[in-house]
Protein 1
Amino acid sequence: MRRGSIWKRGRPDPLVALYAMDLTIVGCSGSFPGPDSASSCYLVEADGYRMVLDLGNGALGPLQRYIGLDQVDAVCISHLHADHCLDMCSYQVFRTYHPDGPLPSIPVFGPPDTVGRLDRAAGGEAPESMAAKFDFRTLTPGTIEIGPFSVTTRHMNHPVETFGFRISAGGTTLAYSADTGPTGELAELARDADLLLCEASFPETDGLPPNLHLTARQAGEYAGRAGAGELIVTHLVPWNSRDQVTADAASAFPGPVSLAVPGARVSL
């Protein structure tokens, strides 16, 4: 039985209150924006609290289809590659020059030196660091509370320091791989999760770079090892065949498999 299900697109209606947690796919294109999707960005909601998980290049625009940008309560950045964090630079412009005046600071959770990375990306000419606009908090492996969410982070297998997330609220759990090559930490992060949102950037072929990304078959294997209820494959590189990605993931995972689609909402 599916413990999570993609049920609609667009803004939420009052039925959302019946669910413990909602996930909206804002952007799911891998490594760079595609013709139909921004880079990585996911909106997670519970009890009226809205948390943005990654804010990659191209994501700030479509995020506004699902939430007012002044309604974001927190941001979590998995790692400091551009396709997961770059639109924070545009977001600070929105919050700084809002017509009603500068908006209050909100927490931004990220790896060490997130503020330095974003200051450099913003050009370095601003009179103030982005630390004056956001409350930056450094992630370490462990469990923290963010609004109604219990968030457990583990290191993933990627060239820069990268965190996967296990997000629980109301008795339901979402696991997010971020970017990763093969690692046992992913199976532990997703143990018995209702939903695993897992990257699959590579096609199933020989000679793939090590310690960088997963194939869809590997994503399915990790979902199976973890005992996850459902697998959604994301970080979809535009030139890969979606049909092949689906088939590869389904060949290794007996549960429900789908591909991330911008605008899809999953209710847990």
Note: The longest strand covers residues 49-55.
Protein 2
Amino acid sequence: MDAIVTAGGIPQPDEPLYAYSNGDSKALIEVAGKPMIQWVLDALSDAKQVDNVIVIGLSPKSGLKCKKPLYYLSNQGRMLANIVAGVNKSLELNKNNQYVLIVSSDIPALKGEMVDWLISVCMQTNDDLYYGVCTREVMEKRFPGSKRSYTKLKDVEVCGADINVTHVRMATEHLDLWEQLIGNRKNSLRQASLIGLDTFFQVLTRSISLDDLVQKVSQRIGIKGRVIVWPYAEACMDVDKPNQLEIMGADLARQQRKAAAPVKKTVKSKPAKKAAAKTVKKKAAKAKPAAKKPVSKVKAKRK
């Protein structure tokens, strides 16, 4: 499966990460010694089920590295247009492709095994769109203090993942509605209002379950959708604010130190070695039977 990485966003002066971007792409903001997007590319490199990687919004001049074939497309101006361009490039590489990964460049904690997990779970069915979520419990256990925004439903509180799987035909159908949904992706209530006032009211009053919400959304849009509940918070931990950037920097730096730390071998000191050797000798001596002394024969004197 090909992965489309969206990296066209440039923070504006009124946005939280503007001071960290130096007028460049958000994807290139440094996190623990690497551009944010490089961590994502490392994960895609390690994923066994990823074939090609298509980066939208950057150029080869960015100096990024990837073990998989890497392609660049210019920013098309809008997120939906970027996704459509990425899908078209994937079909150009292989006309038989049916599904693609849509990956945000701002989830640097993502790992290769997590990407493979998502693809394996999604490919068990033949739906049009697989949308991932994380529960509040999973997020706050892994990243306490991340200040994520949650949608409160009847049975659970969730936030959205930033890596999802979609059928390639989704890039050419329902474009007007998709444009509105993507434009309001940070506001779940506005998204709900776009798909019906009844759904909006049910989300607002927490009277609808996650499964029922997915079913209503799918019917409204006219697709077969499936929600994927992530056991990994990393897929939902995007970097939008300075405190999230700080959390990710500390977390990834800690992982780097742990990976670089030498494996400590237990070395016995010389006195300890001598003591151990004496113990072994004593045990060996006890285990070995004592040798019998030879009995000397004395001839009896004849009278």
Note: The radius of gyration is 31 Å.
Protein 3
Amino acid sequence: MISKPTPIPIKDRLSLVFLERGLLDVIDGAFVLVDKNGVRTQIPVGGVACLMLEPGIRVSHAAVVLATRVGCLLVFVGEAGVRLYSCGQPGGARGEKILYQAKLALDEEARRKVARKMFEFRFRESLPESLSIEQLRGIEGARMKELYRQLANRYNVPWKGRKYDIKNYSAGDLPNKCITSATLCLYGVCEAGILAAGYAPAIGFIHAGNARSFVYDIADLFKHEVLTVAFSVARENPADPERSVRLACRDMFRSERILKRIIPTIEEVLASGGMKMPVLSEGFQPVAIEDPEGIGDVGHRS
């Protein structure tokens, strides 16, 4: 008897691939990018966590269906990946996990505990209970400025401060371009991890009021790693800094096993809120037609 194939777990996948100028389609059973000359480039969609789709990309219905089935996040970004316009759901969130996440975010004390845990994770130290979230944000801002300065000195990169215009990426200097590109790569990977884990990108604890508030929360926990990549690339003064940063981030995500670390980190910071996961079977009307058992990570659709 032939066993049912199982997808590659999100933690073991290639982090992200950038694509531009072509048609994403499924042809002869293969997920391919077709350029204007009809040349097909096969994409191992089941082994990629996130496809970053730049201007010039068109996507067929069949490609979206296949990407969803194998749990690959499709993210529509601007040129050089400097704006994030929209994204699909590789698997979608889980009901009990969204309720758990929302319950933590709506309870002031639980939210404070989760936010504090996030700051402790970033600072790598325990913090006094007397500090408010606003005070922690102030400490964070000062430490980030110092981190930028230290990295600029370490890599001998001229640094005039973090200044960028998301609407005019080309106006920034080289280190700021590299930082922006690296940060957006991180956002894509973190969103893929959040969705794969079954949580909602919009329900944040430090950030709020944005469709990706939780993405920004989780990305901040790993931001120091992509900043190192950004400054190391800036030191080389490449002709195409965006591409150089993407490749460097891809290699770092793989070597540091970022995807493998994201989901356990999410679970750890949420657990600090001190609440239990709800059990949806209690008091709810059962569904009429059960979904088939999922074949991927916990948040993936069947």
Note: The chain has two domains: 10-87, 95-271.
